[in-house]
Amino acid sequence: xxxxxxxxxxxxxxxxxxxxxxxxxxxxxxxxxxxxxxxxxxxxxxxxxxxxxxxxxxxxxxxxxxxxxxxxxxxxxxxxxxxxxxxxxxxxxxxxxxxxxxxxxxxxxxxxxxxxxxxxxxxxxxxxxxxxxxxxxxxxxxxxxxxxxxxxxxxxxxxxxxxxxxxxxxxxxxxxxxxxxxxxxxxxxxxxxxxxxxxxxxxxxxxxxxxxxxxxxxxxxxxxxxxxxxxxxxxxxxxxxxxxxxxxxxxxxxxxxxxxxxxxxxxxxxxxxxxxxxxxxxxxxxxxxxxxxxxxxxxxxxxxxxxxxxxxxxxxxxxxxxxxxxxxxxxxxxxxxxxxxxxxxxxxxxxxxxxxxxxxxxxxxxxxxxxxxxxxxxxxxxxxxxxxxxxxxxxxxxxxxxxxxxxxxxxx
Length: 412
Ligand code: AMP
Ligand code: MG
Fold this sequence. Notes:
Helices cover 18% and strands 33% of the residues. The protein is of the alpha/beta class. It starts with a strand and ends with a strand. It binds adenosine monophosphate (AMP) and magnesium ion. Residues 184-185, 250-251, 305 line the site of magnesium ion.
Protein backbone atom coordinates (compact mmCIF):
# COMPACT_ATOMS: atom_id res chain seq x y z
CA UNK A 1 0.00 0.00 0.00
CA UNK A 2 1.41 3.42 -0.86
CA UNK A 3 1.92 5.73 2.04
CA UNK A 4 -0.94 8.16 2.82
CA UNK A 5 0.38 11.71 2.52
CA UNK A 6 -0.95 15.01 3.87
CA UNK A 7 -2.94 17.16 1.49
CA UNK A 8 -0.37 19.96 1.74
CA UNK A 9 2.36 17.63 0.39
CA UNK A 10 0.24 16.67 -2.61
CA UNK A 11 -0.62 20.30 -3.30
CA UNK A 12 3.00 21.41 -3.09
CA UNK A 13 4.11 18.54 -5.30
CA UNK A 14 1.70 19.73 -7.97
CA UNK A 15 2.42 23.44 -7.64
CA UNK A 16 6.18 22.82 -7.80
CA UNK A 17 5.72 21.23 -11.22
CA UNK A 18 3.52 23.68 -13.07
CA UNK A 19 4.73 26.89 -14.66
CA UNK A 20 2.97 29.86 -16.18
CA UNK A 21 2.99 29.77 -19.96
CA UNK A 22 5.20 32.16 -21.94
CA UNK A 23 3.42 35.51 -22.45
CA UNK A 24 1.81 36.22 -25.80
CA UNK A 25 0.51 39.43 -27.36
CA UNK A 26 -3.16 39.03 -28.22
CA UNK A 27 -6.14 41.10 -29.17
CA UNK A 28 -7.81 42.85 -26.25
CA UNK A 29 -11.10 41.37 -27.37
CA UNK A 30 -9.84 37.91 -26.30
CA UNK A 31 -8.08 39.01 -23.13
CA UNK A 32 -10.78 39.27 -20.47
CA UNK A 33 -10.01 36.93 -17.57
CA UNK A 34 -6.33 36.62 -18.48
CA UNK A 35 -3.38 38.06 -16.56
CA UNK A 36 -1.31 40.95 -17.88
CA UNK A 37 2.34 40.15 -18.44
CA UNK A 38 3.35 43.78 -18.99
CA UNK A 39 2.79 47.15 -17.40
CA UNK A 40 0.24 49.23 -19.28
CA UNK A 41 0.92 52.96 -19.55
CA UNK A 42 -1.86 55.15 -20.92
CA UNK A 43 -1.05 56.47 -24.36
CA UNK A 44 -3.91 58.97 -24.38
CA UNK A 45 -5.97 61.18 -22.12
CA UNK A 46 -9.43 59.94 -21.16
CA UNK A 47 -11.62 61.78 -21.85
CA UNK A 48 -9.67 63.21 -24.77
CA UNK A 49 -11.33 66.66 -24.62
CA UNK A 50 -13.30 68.92 -22.28
CA UNK A 51 -16.96 67.88 -22.49
CA UNK A 52 -20.35 68.23 -20.90
CA UNK A 53 -21.32 65.83 -18.10
CA UNK A 54 -25.05 66.43 -18.67
CA UNK A 55 -27.67 66.94 -21.31
CA UNK A 56 -28.51 70.64 -21.04
CA UNK A 57 -27.05 74.00 -22.02
CA UNK A 58 -23.46 75.18 -22.20
CA UNK A 59 -23.38 78.62 -20.59
CA UNK A 60 -21.13 81.28 -19.10
CA UNK A 61 -21.56 80.83 -15.34
CA UNK A 62 -21.36 84.59 -14.90
CA UNK A 63 -24.49 85.00 -17.02
CA UNK A 64 -26.70 82.90 -14.76
CA UNK A 65 -25.64 84.18 -11.33
CA UNK A 66 -29.01 85.90 -10.99
CA UNK A 67 -31.07 82.94 -12.27
CA UNK A 68 -33.77 82.65 -13.38
CA UNK A 69 -32.45 84.33 -16.53
CA UNK A 70 -33.13 83.99 -20.22
CA UNK A 71 -30.35 83.23 -22.71
CA UNK A 72 -30.32 83.13 -26.49
CA UNK A 73 -29.72 79.62 -27.88
CA UNK A 74 -27.24 79.97 -30.74
CA UNK A 75 -26.41 76.37 -31.63
CA UNK A 76 -26.84 72.71 -30.70
CA UNK A 77 -24.10 70.10 -30.25
CA UNK A 78 -24.49 66.34 -29.93
CA UNK A 79 -21.93 63.77 -28.71
CA UNK A 80 -19.60 63.04 -31.60
CA UNK A 81 -20.02 66.53 -33.07
CA UNK A 82 -18.41 69.89 -32.29
CA UNK A 83 -19.83 73.39 -32.38
CA UNK A 84 -17.89 76.07 -34.20
CA UNK A 85 -19.85 78.79 -32.41
CA UNK A 86 -18.55 80.71 -29.41
CA UNK A 87 -20.88 81.34 -26.46
CA UNK A 88 -20.95 85.07 -25.95
CA UNK A 89 -22.58 87.12 -23.15
CA UNK A 90 -26.28 86.26 -22.79
CA UNK A 91 -25.94 83.18 -25.00
CA UNK A 92 -26.14 79.39 -24.56
CA UNK A 93 -25.62 76.30 -26.71
CA UNK A 94 -27.85 73.24 -26.37
CA UNK A 95 -25.43 70.41 -25.50
CA UNK A 96 -25.64 66.64 -25.02
CA UNK A 97 -23.65 64.51 -22.57
CA UNK A 98 -20.15 63.87 -23.90
CA UNK A 99 -20.24 66.64 -26.50
CA UNK A 100 -17.22 68.99 -26.51
CA UNK A 101 -17.70 72.18 -24.53
CA UNK A 102 -17.99 75.04 -26.99
CA UNK A 103 -15.64 77.99 -26.82
CA UNK A 104 -16.78 80.69 -24.43
CA UNK A 105 -18.82 78.37 -22.17
CA UNK A 106 -17.46 77.40 -18.74
CA UNK A 107 -20.33 75.36 -17.28
CA UNK A 108 -23.28 73.21 -18.24
CA UNK A 109 -26.77 73.56 -16.82
CA UNK A 110 -28.74 70.33 -16.75
CA UNK A 111 -31.85 70.35 -18.93
CA UNK A 112 -34.02 69.65 -15.89
CA UNK A 113 -33.08 73.12 -14.59
CA UNK A 114 -34.12 74.86 -17.79
CA UNK A 115 -37.15 75.56 -19.92
CA UNK A 116 -37.01 76.14 -23.66
CA UNK A 117 -39.17 79.12 -24.44
CA UNK A 118 -41.99 79.03 -26.94
CA UNK A 119 -40.22 80.27 -30.05
CA UNK A 120 -37.25 77.93 -29.46
CA UNK A 121 -34.61 80.64 -29.76
CA UNK A 122 -34.29 81.23 -26.04
CA UNK A 123 -33.95 79.16 -22.87
CA UNK A 124 -34.93 80.03 -19.31
CA UNK A 125 -32.20 78.92 -16.90
CA UNK A 126 -33.73 78.49 -13.48
CA UNK A 127 -30.63 77.83 -11.40
CA UNK A 128 -27.25 79.42 -11.15
CA UNK A 129 -24.12 77.32 -11.68
CA UNK A 130 -20.46 77.81 -10.90
CA UNK A 131 -17.74 77.81 -13.51
CA UNK A 132 -16.70 74.18 -14.08
CA UNK A 133 -20.04 72.69 -13.03
CA UNK A 134 -21.03 69.64 -15.07
CA UNK A 135 -17.87 69.95 -17.13
CA UNK A 136 -15.52 66.96 -17.50
CA UNK A 137 -11.92 67.94 -18.09
CA UNK A 138 -9.61 66.19 -20.52
CA UNK A 139 -7.70 63.50 -18.62
CA UNK A 140 -10.23 63.56 -15.76
CA UNK A 141 -10.30 59.75 -15.85
CA UNK A 142 -6.84 58.89 -17.18
CA UNK A 143 -3.90 61.19 -17.89
CA UNK A 144 -1.66 60.12 -20.78
CA UNK A 145 1.59 58.66 -19.44
CA UNK A 146 0.03 57.26 -16.25
CA UNK A 147 0.93 53.71 -15.24
CA UNK A 148 -2.49 52.09 -15.31
CA UNK A 149 -1.88 48.41 -14.56
CA UNK A 150 1.07 46.42 -13.27
CA UNK A 151 2.05 43.03 -14.68
CA UNK A 152 0.10 40.34 -12.79
CA UNK A 153 -3.18 42.24 -13.01
CA UNK A 154 -6.15 40.08 -13.95
CA UNK A 155 -8.04 41.66 -16.83
CA UNK A 156 -11.53 41.90 -15.37
CA UNK A 157 -14.31 43.17 -17.66
CA UNK A 158 -14.01 46.74 -16.29
CA UNK A 159 -10.23 46.64 -16.73
CA UNK A 160 -10.75 45.47 -20.33
CA UNK A 161 -12.97 48.54 -20.69
CA UNK A 162 -10.22 50.81 -19.41
CA UNK A 163 -7.71 49.23 -21.80
CA UNK A 164 -10.12 49.86 -24.66
CA UNK A 165 -10.55 53.47 -23.49
CA UNK A 166 -6.82 54.11 -23.90
CA UNK A 167 -6.62 52.25 -27.21
CA UNK A 168 -4.54 49.33 -25.86
CA UNK A 169 -5.78 47.06 -28.62
CA UNK A 170 -3.11 44.38 -28.20
CA UNK A 171 -1.98 43.26 -24.77
CA UNK A 172 0.77 40.96 -23.55
CA UNK A 173 -0.86 38.26 -21.41
CA UNK A 174 -0.30 34.81 -20.04
CA UNK A 175 -2.27 32.78 -22.57
CA UNK A 176 -5.26 30.67 -21.64
CA UNK A 177 -4.14 27.04 -21.30
CA UNK A 178 -5.87 24.46 -23.46
CA UNK A 179 -6.84 21.63 -21.14
CA UNK A 180 -7.79 18.18 -22.40
CA UNK A 181 -10.55 16.52 -20.39
CA UNK A 182 -11.28 12.84 -20.71
CA UNK A 183 -13.00 10.21 -18.68
CA UNK A 184 -12.32 6.51 -18.65
CA UNK A 185 -14.43 3.45 -17.97
CA UNK A 186 -16.12 0.67 -19.96
CA UNK A 187 -19.28 1.22 -17.93
CA UNK A 188 -19.80 4.81 -19.12
CA UNK A 189 -22.53 5.68 -21.59
CA UNK A 190 -22.85 9.03 -23.38
CA UNK A 191 -25.04 8.26 -26.39
CA UNK A 192 -28.36 8.56 -24.61
CA UNK A 193 -29.22 4.92 -25.27
CA UNK A 194 -30.76 2.40 -22.89
CA UNK A 195 -28.40 1.22 -20.17
CA UNK A 196 -27.20 -2.37 -20.49
CA UNK A 197 -26.50 -4.25 -17.26
CA UNK A 198 -23.59 -2.65 -15.44
CA UNK A 199 -23.62 0.57 -17.44
CA UNK A 200 -24.06 4.06 -16.04
CA UNK A 201 -24.35 7.50 -17.60
CA UNK A 202 -21.14 9.46 -17.82
CA UNK A 203 -21.17 12.59 -15.68
CA UNK A 204 -17.63 13.60 -14.80
CA UNK A 205 -16.51 14.81 -18.19
CA UNK A 206 -19.46 17.15 -18.48
CA UNK A 207 -18.74 18.47 -14.99
CA UNK A 208 -14.98 18.76 -15.46
CA UNK A 209 -15.22 20.51 -18.82
CA UNK A 210 -17.26 23.17 -17.02
CA UNK A 211 -14.91 23.35 -14.06
CA UNK A 212 -11.90 23.71 -16.35
CA UNK A 213 -13.63 26.53 -18.25
CA UNK A 214 -14.69 28.18 -14.98
CA UNK A 215 -11.04 28.05 -13.88
CA UNK A 216 -10.25 30.26 -16.90
CA UNK A 217 -8.92 27.61 -19.29
CA UNK A 218 -10.02 26.48 -22.71
CA UNK A 219 -11.56 23.05 -22.08
CA UNK A 220 -11.09 20.53 -24.88
CA UNK A 221 -13.30 17.45 -24.91
CA UNK A 222 -11.21 14.31 -25.45
CA UNK A 223 -14.17 12.03 -24.91
CA UNK A 224 -14.84 8.87 -22.96
CA UNK A 225 -12.06 6.35 -23.40
CA UNK A 226 -12.60 2.61 -23.00
CA UNK A 227 -10.57 0.70 -20.45
CA UNK A 228 -8.12 -0.27 -23.16
CA UNK A 229 -4.46 0.53 -22.71
CA UNK A 230 -3.57 1.02 -26.36
CA UNK A 231 -6.53 3.30 -27.03
CA UNK A 232 -5.92 5.32 -23.90
CA UNK A 233 -2.22 5.70 -24.69
CA UNK A 234 -3.08 7.08 -28.11
CA UNK A 235 -5.56 9.58 -26.69
CA UNK A 236 -3.16 10.75 -23.98
CA UNK A 237 -0.30 11.23 -26.43
CA UNK A 238 -2.54 13.24 -28.75
CA UNK A 239 -3.68 15.35 -25.80
CA UNK A 240 -0.05 16.01 -24.78
CA UNK A 241 0.67 17.34 -28.25
CA UNK A 242 -2.48 19.40 -28.69
CA UNK A 243 -3.00 20.73 -25.17
CA UNK A 244 -1.17 22.37 -22.27
CA UNK A 245 -2.56 20.11 -19.53
CA UNK A 246 -4.61 16.94 -19.23
CA UNK A 247 -7.36 16.12 -16.75
CA UNK A 248 -8.46 12.50 -16.57
CA UNK A 249 -11.16 10.96 -14.45
CA UNK A 250 -11.28 7.38 -13.27
CA UNK A 251 -8.83 4.54 -13.23
CA UNK A 252 -6.35 5.89 -10.69
CA UNK A 253 -7.10 3.71 -7.68
CA UNK A 254 -6.40 0.11 -6.81
CA UNK A 255 -8.80 -1.70 -9.18
CA UNK A 256 -7.69 -4.36 -11.68
CA UNK A 257 -8.95 -2.28 -14.61
CA UNK A 258 -7.36 1.00 -13.60
CA UNK A 259 -5.88 1.53 -17.03
CA UNK A 260 -5.05 5.19 -16.48
CA UNK A 261 -2.61 4.01 -13.87
CA UNK A 262 -1.21 1.27 -16.09
CA UNK A 263 -0.72 3.54 -19.10
CA UNK A 264 0.55 6.66 -17.37
CA UNK A 265 2.97 4.61 -15.29
CA UNK A 266 4.45 3.44 -18.56
CA UNK A 267 4.51 6.68 -20.56
CA UNK A 268 4.66 9.55 -18.06
CA UNK A 269 6.58 10.64 -14.97
CA UNK A 270 3.78 10.18 -12.44
CA UNK A 271 3.30 10.18 -8.71
CA UNK A 272 0.42 8.01 -7.52
CA UNK A 273 -0.85 9.40 -4.29
CA UNK A 274 -3.11 8.39 -1.47
CA UNK A 275 -4.03 11.59 0.32
CA UNK A 276 -5.32 11.95 3.87
CA UNK A 277 -8.59 13.54 2.78
CA UNK A 278 -12.16 12.39 2.27
CA UNK A 279 -13.48 12.34 -0.38
CA UNK A 280 -10.79 12.12 -3.09
CA UNK A 281 -8.17 9.94 -1.44
CA UNK A 282 -6.56 8.63 -4.66
CA UNK A 283 -4.98 11.24 -6.92
CA UNK A 284 -2.21 11.18 -9.46
CA UNK A 285 -0.10 13.92 -10.88
CA UNK A 286 2.76 13.93 -13.29
CA UNK A 287 4.27 15.17 -16.52
CA UNK A 288 3.71 13.59 -19.91
CA UNK A 289 6.24 14.35 -22.64
CA UNK A 290 4.98 15.76 -25.92
CA UNK A 291 6.42 13.42 -28.55
CA UNK A 292 6.08 16.14 -31.19
CA UNK A 293 8.19 18.71 -29.33
CA UNK A 294 11.30 17.41 -27.60
CA UNK A 295 11.74 18.92 -24.14
CA UNK A 296 8.09 19.90 -23.79
CA UNK A 297 5.86 18.07 -21.33
CA UNK A 298 2.39 18.76 -19.98
CA UNK A 299 0.96 18.28 -16.51
CA UNK A 300 -1.50 15.42 -16.07
CA UNK A 301 -4.09 15.48 -13.31
CA UNK A 302 -5.40 11.98 -12.63
CA UNK A 303 -8.64 12.47 -10.76
CA UNK A 304 -10.58 9.62 -9.16
CA UNK A 305 -13.71 8.37 -10.93
CA UNK A 306 -16.26 8.72 -8.18
CA UNK A 307 -17.97 11.92 -9.25
CA UNK A 308 -17.80 13.70 -5.89
CA UNK A 309 -14.16 12.69 -5.52
CA UNK A 310 -13.48 13.97 -9.01
CA UNK A 311 -15.01 17.31 -8.16
CA UNK A 312 -13.21 17.74 -4.83
CA UNK A 313 -9.92 16.54 -6.24
CA UNK A 314 -10.21 19.06 -9.07
CA UNK A 315 -10.98 21.85 -6.57
CA UNK A 316 -8.09 21.06 -4.25
CA UNK A 317 -5.32 20.18 -6.69
CA UNK A 318 -6.12 20.88 -10.33
CA UNK A 319 -7.81 24.26 -10.03
CA UNK A 320 -5.00 26.00 -8.08
CA UNK A 321 -2.46 24.57 -10.53
CA UNK A 322 -4.45 25.71 -13.56
CA UNK A 323 -4.72 29.17 -12.00
CA UNK A 324 -0.96 29.21 -11.41
CA UNK A 325 -0.43 28.25 -15.06
CA UNK A 326 -2.37 31.39 -15.99
CA UNK A 327 -0.18 33.54 -13.75
CA UNK A 328 -3.04 34.43 -11.43
CA UNK A 329 -1.73 36.06 -8.27
CA UNK A 330 -4.53 34.40 -6.28
CA UNK A 331 -4.90 30.71 -7.01
CA UNK A 332 -7.21 29.69 -4.20
CA UNK A 333 -10.84 30.30 -3.50
CA UNK A 334 -12.00 32.52 -0.68
CA UNK A 335 -11.85 30.93 2.76
CA UNK A 336 -14.19 32.22 5.45
CA UNK A 337 -14.55 31.33 9.10
CA UNK A 338 -18.14 30.13 8.99
CA UNK A 339 -20.81 29.33 11.56
CA UNK A 340 -22.07 25.74 11.43
CA UNK A 341 -25.84 26.14 11.80
CA UNK A 342 -26.06 22.42 12.48
CA UNK A 343 -23.56 19.85 13.73
CA UNK A 344 -21.17 18.61 11.03
CA UNK A 345 -20.24 15.27 12.47
CA UNK A 346 -17.52 12.87 11.49
CA UNK A 347 -15.35 10.14 13.04
CA UNK A 348 -11.60 10.33 13.63
CA UNK A 349 -9.85 8.50 10.76
CA UNK A 350 -6.63 10.39 10.21
CA UNK A 351 -8.11 12.39 7.32
CA UNK A 352 -9.37 15.90 6.72
CA UNK A 353 -12.97 15.78 5.54
CA UNK A 354 -14.38 18.17 3.00
CA UNK A 355 -18.09 18.29 3.81
CA UNK A 356 -20.27 19.73 1.08
CA UNK A 357 -22.43 22.46 2.52
CA UNK A 358 -24.94 25.13 1.64
CA UNK A 359 -23.41 28.43 2.66
CA UNK A 360 -24.84 31.93 2.77
CA UNK A 361 -24.10 35.21 4.47
CA UNK A 362 -26.64 35.94 7.22
CA UNK A 363 -28.02 39.20 8.57
CA UNK A 364 -25.26 39.02 11.21
CA UNK A 365 -22.71 39.42 8.42
CA UNK A 366 -21.31 35.94 9.03
CA UNK A 367 -21.24 33.04 6.63
CA UNK A 368 -23.50 30.20 7.78
CA UNK A 369 -23.27 26.62 6.57
CA UNK A 370 -25.45 23.50 6.64
CA UNK A 371 -24.78 20.08 5.19
CA UNK A 372 -26.20 19.40 1.74
CA UNK A 373 -27.16 15.90 2.95
CA UNK A 374 -25.78 12.80 1.19
CA UNK A 375 -22.01 12.87 1.62
CA UNK A 376 -21.20 9.65 -0.29
CA UNK A 377 -18.53 10.02 -2.96
CA UNK A 378 -21.02 8.77 -5.57
CA UNK A 379 -23.78 11.20 -4.51
CA UNK A 380 -23.13 14.02 -6.95
CA UNK A 381 -26.72 15.25 -6.90
CA UNK A 382 -26.44 16.33 -3.25
CA UNK A 383 -22.92 17.69 -3.70
CA UNK A 384 -23.91 19.63 -6.80
CA UNK A 385 -26.12 21.88 -4.67
CA UNK A 386 -23.19 22.80 -2.39
CA UNK A 387 -21.93 26.35 -2.44
CA UNK A 388 -19.00 25.66 -0.14
CA UNK A 389 -16.75 22.97 1.26
CA UNK A 390 -16.51 22.85 5.07
CA UNK A 391 -13.05 21.77 6.16
CA UNK A 392 -13.36 19.28 9.01
CA UNK A 393 -9.94 18.41 10.45
CA UNK A 394 -9.42 14.93 11.86
CA UNK A 395 -11.63 14.50 14.92
CA UNK A 396 -15.33 14.48 15.71
CA UNK A 397 -16.47 17.37 13.59
CA UNK A 398 -18.13 20.60 14.64
CA UNK A 399 -21.04 21.17 17.01
CA UNK A 400 -24.03 23.25 16.02
CA UNK A 401 -23.05 26.90 16.46
CA UNK A 402 -19.35 26.12 16.23
CA UNK A 403 -16.88 27.72 13.82
CA UNK A 404 -15.64 25.97 10.72
CA UNK A 405 -13.33 26.95 7.88
CA UNK A 406 -15.35 27.08 4.67
CA UNK A 407 -14.05 27.25 1.11
CA UNK A 408 -16.57 29.27 -0.85
CA UNK A 409 -17.19 27.66 -4.24
CA UNK A 410 -19.79 30.07 -5.50
CA UNK A 411 -21.74 32.93 -4.03
CA UNK A 412 -25.34 33.22 -5.05
P1 AMP B 1 -12.78 4.37 -11.00
O1 AMP B 1 -12.04 5.49 -10.38
O2 AMP B 1 -12.57 4.28 -12.46
O3 AMP B 1 -12.50 3.08 -10.28
O4 AMP B 1 -14.31 4.68 -10.81
C1 AMP B 1 -14.85 4.79 -9.51
C2 AMP B 1 -16.36 4.92 -9.59
O5 AMP B 1 -16.70 6.10 -10.29
C3 AMP B 1 -17.05 3.80 -10.32
O6 AMP B 1 -18.30 3.57 -9.68
C4 AMP B 1 -17.26 4.38 -11.69
O7 AMP B 1 -18.35 3.77 -12.37
C5 AMP B 1 -17.54 5.82 -11.39
N1 AMP B 1 -17.14 6.68 -12.51
C6 AMP B 1 -15.92 6.69 -13.07
N2 AMP B 1 -15.86 7.59 -14.05
C7 AMP B 1 -17.08 8.16 -14.12
C8 AMP B 1 -17.63 9.17 -14.94
N3 AMP B 1 -16.92 9.76 -15.88
N4 AMP B 1 -18.93 9.50 -14.74
C9 AMP B 1 -19.65 8.91 -13.78
N5 AMP B 1 -19.17 7.97 -12.97
C10 AMP B 1 -17.90 7.58 -13.13
MG1 MG C 1 -12.89 2.94 -13.94
